[in-house]
Amino acid sequence: MEKTVVKIDNLVKRYGELVALDHFSLEIKEGEIFGLLGPNGSGKTTTINCLLSLLSFDKGSIEIFGKKMTPVSYDIKKDIGVVMQNVVVSDELTVYENIDYFCGLYITDKKLRKQYVEEAVKFVGLDDFTKFYPKKLSGGLLRRLNIACGIAHKPKLIILDEPTVAVDPQSRNKILEGIQELNKNGVTIIYTSHYMEEVEQICTRIAIMDKGRKVAEGTKDELKRMIKNTETISIEALGLGEDVLAEMRALPHVYDVKYDEKLLVISCSGGKHNLIRALEVLQKRELGFGRVYSELPTLNEVFLEITGKALRDKEE
Amino acid sequence: MFLHNLIYEIKSSFRVRDLLFWLILFPIILGTFFKIAFGSLYEKQTKVTAIPTAIVETADNEVFRSVIESVSGTDEALLDAEFLSEEEALKKLKDGDIKGIIYSGDKLTLTVSGDGIEQSVLKLFVEQYMLREKIITDTMTSDPSKMQAVIAALSEEVNTSEEAKLTEGNLDFYIQYFYNLIAMVAMYGSVTGLHVAIGQQANLSELGARKNCSATPKSVGILASLTGTWIVQSICMIICVSFTAFVLKVDYGDRLPLVYVAAICGGILGVAFGFFIGSIGRMKQGAKVGICMSVSMTMCFLSGLMVANMKPIMAEKAPWFNNINPAALVADSISALNLYSGYRVFVTKVVTMLVISLIFYVLGLLMVRRRKYASL
Questions:
Q1: Which candidate, B200, B335, B357, B196, places its Cα nearest to that of B270?
Q2: Overall domain count for chain A
């Protein structure tokens, strides 16, 4: 049976009148890459800060590695790696010194620390920049340094709070590959991000937060099944009449049909063989068609459907 | 973990350019400026200058002539005397080239231009000469046998008081500026203390938040950072005292090692003050630095860094203030080494500094020790 690494139970956190976390519960198993998604102000960072015992909370409990997490749980903290949302490094220390400094907050053995720091440098690909000061690094390199500082001590649980913000595609790819590699080595990862494609790419399980509550949780496929749209079929076809469109609408699992004289878009909710049935309608009437696409919903669509499309910053 | 934190605290501190400027370079520049400005002023004020005087001989007076020759013409002469005709002497007096004219004949008379120290000295000189001449003349008339004894008595300097030195130290007035310079460097240490407090609190800095997530106990982190800051501040204080003492040749008296002790204690007090300010409330770092700098400079001003008379004014208006003003305590502790031969005042000032430091540290730690925050 998989061990529970993080258990958040019924967590309530208020900032005055504002309820930042509203009876929020979560369980993360060993070896998962757990994605925490949510719009701005949904409570992701508050959850992380409570988890790390930086923030006090009004109600609920947090357990990590089966033990209650408190600010003095140094035995738990030594196995946690943190990569903050903003780059947190010392401008007065070089790349190597920064990694060594943060690693030294966990590892006392000098020889072992040296080995870990060198491995971390290699892992994030900063070999050529060890003597550089952070101010001389590009945004992507800084992010990689930030990650190296958070993971150098080889923690069992790594919390990454939007680690790829303002990073170029190459650096982002390097970071995501690195995270997957860490996970392959048995590290449990909590990953928060606004980038749906990243979460979809690497996370094994995802929780969507909104207004301090968990509104959905599951694997990406489970989440996609939670929304109405499960498949979007697009067919290039000319001169389709209203009778054809009516027949398409009458097909099982089809809940919406749109046509703009060139492209027919059929939205389906559940069911199998939706594409075959749609093509049969056209063939039966001997109507020609061009390219055909069948797309499953993206995590972005899932996210927007669950959390709504209203601008959150504006709302706040 | 302590040593690891300590090493990196020292290493990173010495790479902060602002810190190097304000704690090392600026005092060197200001000290050099003080030396140039006040050093020459002091020499001008204290150098004994001979009083330019004209001697007009209305009758032959060999005794007086020899006396005049003995008090002029040397490096430490009382008079810069020249024998002139009355006409020439009056012209020079009018032009301000001389301070007075002594008419030498059967009787001495003196003409001076205006009032002043030099005119008073000339008047005293003439009166003393006439008094002694009368004593000798009277003795010769009444009892010539006592003449030798009278001359011997007159030759001796008769002092009703005995000079007793308070200290072997330097009592020059302008040296106060250097005491205050050292106090200023100590107070600038408040900025480094401020960074220690801010860098440890999750609600004040991201670095603080990051450190709070680590496996290093907060107490170890704070102690290591404070120790590192004390070491850095002490090195800056040693550089400041050494530069002024050995490069600018400021004479701190014969107890220089204790000047270092006072300066280092002052540095610890400065760091404590900053640590305390850094621990209070949730103001932004820039605002706290502003408070630290302005309070430090106000304290330095009130202790006489910019206006030397400020400390006596404070001593008169609010005597208690100089006993708690950190800048005044630093300056006074060093000053006490030069003013008093004993150690009572010095020890009192140093102990006061350490007690105030302790109060600041305890209050700061009580606020910083918090481990969980209501908001970040």
A1: B357
A2: 2
* Separation CA B225–CA B229 (nearest Å): 6
Yes or no, beta carbons of A72 and B371 under 8 Å apart: yes
Alpha helices in chain B (DSSP H): 2-13, 17-20, 26-46, 62-70, 86-95, 117-142, 147-155, 175-198, 206-212, 218-242, 256-279, 285-302, 310-317, 326-339, 344-368
ipTM, 2 decimals? 0.82
Measured in angstroms, the CA of B295 and the nearest CA of chain A are apart by: 27
CA-CA-CA-CA torsion for A253, A255, A258, A264, nearest 10 degrees?
-10
Ramachandran bin of B352, using left for φ above 0, alpha for ψ from -120 to 50, beta for the remaining angles: alpha
Question: Max CA-CA distance within chain A?
Answer: 78
Look at the alpha carbons of B2, B8, B11, B13 in this order and tell me if their dihedral is positive or negative: negative
For residue B13, which residues of chain A lie inside 8 Å, CB to CB?
A: 92
> Which of A15, A54, A93 lies nearest to residue B202, judging by beta carbons?
A54
Cα–Cα distances in angstroms (integers) from residue B292 to residues A118, B297, B302, B314, B361, in the given order:
40, 9, 15, 21, 15
In order, the DSSP letters of B4-24 are HHHHHHHHHHTT-HHHHIIII
Give the closest-approach CA distance of A174 to chain B in angstroms: 24
pLDDT single digits (tens) B107-143: 888 888 877 778 888 888 888 888 888 888 888 788 7
**Min Cα–Cα distance to chain A from B215, Å:** 5
DSSP annotation of A278 reads: H
In chain B, what are the domain boundaries?
2-42+173-369, 49-153
Mark whether A106 and A236 lie in a shared domain. no
The verdict on B369 touching A (C-beta cutoff 8 Å) is: no
Strand partners, B112: B100
Between residues B54 and B370, the one the model is more confident about: B54
Compute the distance between CA of residue A81 and CA of residue B47 in angstroms, rounded to an integer: 71
Contact (CB, 8 A) for B30 and B305: no
Q: Contact, A252 vs A269, CB < 8 A?
A: no
Rounded distance, CA A121 to CA A127, Å?
Answer: 6
pTM here?
0.75
Q: What is the C-alpha separation between B117 and A3, in angstroms, rounded?
A: 97
> Any idea which architecture B49-153 has in CATH?
3-Layer(aba) Sandwich (3.40)
* Contact of A230 with A270, CB cutoff 8 Å: yes
DSSP class of residue A105?
T
Whether residues A64 and A177 fall in one domain: yes
Task: Dump the DSSP string for B153-176.
Answer: HHHS---SS----S-SS---STHH
Q: How is the beta sheet containing A213-218 ordered, strand by strand?
A: A80-83, A157-161, A188-192, A33-37, A205-210, A213-218
- Sorting pLDDT into bands at 50, 70 and 90, what band is A276? very high
Residue A36 maps to a domain: yes
For A261, the domain range is 228-296
